[in-house]
């Protein structure tokens, strides 16, 4: 196994919500018992419905969400950090090593800054360059990689289309030369024709700059095309994790299956074959006992309602949390 | 052949802006037969929503319809000239009467300070002679029909108390309660999760059969179209570039833009395939390219590029059902 860049062990993220004066305050269990390893230089996909805790997990890995239990460790050869105890100068240093690309390129860019200033801001804030010339040079280099020309750098974000804006956000994330980037639904707001372009760009960046990506998306077909390893989340837990090809050929968790079959097929003759999932994702304040998926699972039995399935490896590099994974595979 | 439910002929729509007249829809013609689902596909900015809104005269005040534009609605053996309806009272038939619409963002389309029930009853009372009690009964029945649990409780709740999927169901229930002949669905599943999207698509297919209505289904997702539509119309920069049955358009696309859209979709059965984006961005409608509107992004024009740049392609008629506006398709096969 190659080097692990970032690893979460039994990670939990809880958000307290208003409760009564007495008694225990209710908490939203956004992430619970997460075990995941992201290898250096990989393109790691995280997929799930809205409300499954994908974004929270991504943020916890950037120490942008509170870690309530468990630990997250980051090791890149130069430093080794335990995120739950990170503060002060070390935290500042960690911020330089990580970046985030947001979902909505219309909201993520300040309308009052030129593209040059937007891309240069991380360099200035982090004090990574010593002169304006050096800053300009790095901005130009990164901009060229993201296919933005000099003319573009002088303009303001309003002059750009969605795809171009997303390329600006990517350039901003890349300019500080991070080791780890979380791309949170970075193509969800784009048209399919543009989406393919941005995905290709992210892939080429990962190859050329050797950056590790955590790619969060609700769309399995997008994940399938970009990532080399996929983790599927449901209601705050990872239910299945495997290399992409394996996840698709040896799908073991019923939720992964349901997600796969819910993708509308391009073949008009394929109508209605899909196995449909009933109902909606339950509330993370009061998750169902036993397997959290039991309320919607077509195969659920008595055992699923009482006993929490163990997170286990069913074949090399392929983990799943389901009592009946072998039967379904 | 039965007469179409709604027939759009040479629809051209411009917006008056400070920069001059912007052409949003250019010479668009299509028919929707009773009971048919027509899918309207295209990128953002291609004029899909504006076209749909024209059917209900919902476009903003600054819109100018070209005088040759004609939209005819055939209901109960009557022909209604939609663009000729001037007063709000006459427009009732196209606004919730014979035509209803559901929108992309279900949170934004319900009033936040009125209960869902209130809003359902209000529109029923506008469009029929019902009493408030009858309207309530029908509303609850519709909520049950679209699969909302505990409908009589839900009736008294507000939009924020519903989840995304449920809001969209309530929206559908509301749109269908007046028994429209045509439902316009503008990206109804785009804001939903795939699992919920699959449920909503199923529901809509069932309802079409049950109520025998037609749907104009707007989306940018060709997969959703393949699963729902009978016929497809592809729009680009205000123009219809290709129309045909869903099989024709998806299995043998004739326009380079349609092929581009299909090639840029990630496919699950071939994970190694390169994604090929349509190069460049959709041009500004203020600056419409001469000739074929798609020529600035077309990769297939090859040796007839000169023609594409200067001559507007005609609608080909190789097959009455499958039409395409492209020089390549008309001048001897594909590139």
Number of strands of chain A: 12
> Low-confidence stretches of chain B at least 5 residues in length (pLDDT < 50)?
none
Cα-to-Cα separation, first versus last residue of chain B: 35 Å
What would CATH call the homologous superfamily of chain A? Answer: P-loop containing nucleotide triphosphate hydrolases
Counted by DSSP, the helix tally of chain B is 12
Classify the oligomer.
heterodimer
The topology string of helices and strands of chain A comes to EEEHEEHEHHHHEHEHEEHHHEEH
Q: Specify the helix fraction band of chain A.
A: 25-40%
Measure the end-to-end span of chain A.
24 Å
Mean pLDDT of chain A: 89
- Note the beta-strand portion of chain A: 15-25%
Largest interface: A-B, 45 and 46 residues
Number of domains of chain A: 1
Shape of chain B: globular
- Which series of helices and strands of chain B comes N to C? EEEHEEEEHHHHHEHEHEEHHHEH
Q: Give a short account of the largest sheet of chain B.
A: 7 strands, mixed
Total count of helical runs of at least 4 residues of chain A = 12
Question: Which fold name fills CATH's third level, the topology of chain A?
Answer: Rossmann fold
Protein model, in words:
The complex is a heterodimer of chains A (329) and B (335). Chain A has 12 helices and 12 strands. Chain A has helices spanning 54-61, 88-97, 115-126, 132-145, 150-153, 162-174, 192-209, 220-226, 244-249, 254-262, 302-306, 325-328; strands spanning 4-16, 27-39, 43-47, 69-75, 80-82, 98-101, 180-184, 212-217, 229-234, 237-243, 312-315, 318-320. In chain A, helix 3 crosses helix 4. Chain A is globular, with a radius of gyration of 21 Å. The two termini of chain A are 24 Å apart. The mean pLDDT of chain A is 89. By secondary structure, chain B is α/β, with parallel strands linked by helices. Among the domains of chain B are: 109-179, no CATH class; 251-330, no CATH class. Chain B is built from 12 helices and 12 strands. Chain B has a 7-stranded mixed beta sheet, sandwiched between helices. The longest helix of chain B is centred in the middle third of the chain and has 18 residues, at 194-211. Chain B starts with 5 loop residues before the first strand and ends in a 5-residue tail after the last helix. The mean pLDDT of chain B is 87.
